[in-house]
Design goal:
Length: 383
């Protein structure tokens, strides 16, 4: 298989979300490749009610079943974040790197999987293997995953290898997330008559003050799970960031509204209920401010994945690349939480490195990493 050509063609399909176009084209391209690798495949149209009302979400499920063996399900997504200001969908190969939106996050890993599976065609696999290729990961996809469950049975006790991950080590857990939009209310008047109004921006700044006080406590919380060395941290840490403050119309109008968005990330040892209460307590502690929650998005934290199978994978990575280990990811995704609900175990290995600039301009993946990832997956699946 000419994996560079396969990746080049996959990358040239613009699957940006929003809006989430061309998913069908990407699945049309991938489906026969999995068939050629000896898998039974099935296209699945996710009903709009499982995709937050969005239409035309085509997913792909592939199987090489071997009942009685341990169940292993690969996870990947074909959507990418939008790109601006560079030729993101005209892939170029340059000096050991392949540049394009989605090269590292994460079409490169899907192609590495295909490369491994093709080499194993006709040979017995160590596991009862399925592959799920999903959509809308870059938005939120919990309910789509829940819909796919019926096509992946049995999921209880199954291992899920998340290819939407970093290269060179096994990721055993991520952060939970609690994101809230807080709308602060005021009363608009002419700036010169501000004694008759209520300034929502100034009131919001009081809330921000309380949030920053909470932040100083939150960031002190360290997990017992080591963080990937590339992050500059020893262990995973909790986070609280005020990432959006938006309000005000014009310099001479007292503003009647201000939006404050908070992104709280939870280490595995924390739980959502406490984090939410702590956040609400901090906001409520500020007197004289009227606010309401506009939007709340959560991903509950899960415990780290511990299993002999992970140590086996770590050894294969070390053998192939000369380095490795198992670490916690300073990021969050829907998959781990959904898999935990199914009674499965999720862990990750992919082709992302910090310098790959995912979600940024000139995203790239190393050719060597794709080749190594294919080798690692191949050895992991071999009897
Ligand atoms: Zn991704």
């Amino acid at each position: 298989m000419d994996y560079i050509e396969v990746l080049r063609r996959l990358l040239s399909i613009d699957t940006s979300v929003p809006p989430g176009s061309n998913y069908d084209k990407a699945i049309d391209y991938l489906q026969p490749l999995f068939e050629e690798a000896g898998f039974d495949t099935r296209r699945i149209l996710i009903p709009a009610e499982y995709a937050e009302g969005r239409e035309g979400r085509i997913n792909l499920v592939c199987h090489r079943r071997a009942p009685g063996r341990k169940r292993l399900i690969f996870y990947g997504h074909i959507d990418v974040v939008p790109a601006e200001g560079w030729d993101a969908f005209q892939p170029r190969v340059e000096g050991g790197k392949i540049y394009s939106r989605g090269a590292a996050d994460m079409k490169g890993s899907i192609v590495a999987l295909l490369l491994a599976l093709e080499l194993l065609k006709g040979k017995p696999l160590k596991y009862d293997v399925s592959v799920m290729i999903t959509t809308d990961e870059e938005l939120s996809q919990a309910s789509q995953l829940r819909y796919l469950e019926r096509y992946l049975q049995p999921v209880s006790g199954a291992y899920f290898l998340n290819l939407d991950s970093s290269f060179g080590y096994v990721s055993i857990v991520g952060l939970g997330a609690l994101q809230v939009d807080i709308k602060v209310k005021g009363k608009a008047v002419h700036s010169a008559l501000s004694h008759l109004g209520e300034n929502a921006v100034e009131k919001a700044s009081l809330l921000v003050g309380a949030l920053l006080e909470l932040k100083s406590k939150v960031v002190e919380r360290k997990s017992r799970v080591p963080a990937y060395p590339g992050t500059g941290l020893d262990n995973m840490e909790a986070r609280l960031n005020v990432n959006v403050v938006r309000g005000g119309l014009k310099v001479n109008i007292v503003p009647d509204e201000c939006l404050v968005s908070v992104d709280r990330r939870l280490i595995p040892e924390e739980n959502l209920e406490d984090a939410r209460k702590e956040l609400m307590d901090a906001l409520s502690s500020v007197p004289g401010v009227t606010w309401e929650l506009e939007r709340v998005f959560t991903i509950p934290p899960v415990p780290p994945c511990e299993d002999p199978l992970i140590d086996e994978l770590v050894d294969i990575i070390k053998d192939t690349t000369g380095q490795g280990g198992k670490f916690g990811e300073m990021g969050s995704g829907d998959l781990a939480y959904i898999v935990a609900g199914w009674g499965g175990k999720e862990f990750g290995l992919g082709a992302i490195r910090p310098e790959c600039n995912i979600h940024g301009r000139e995203e790239f993946v190393y050719r060597q990493d794709i080749e190594d990832l294919a080798k690692i997956i191949g050895r992991f699946l071999s009897c």
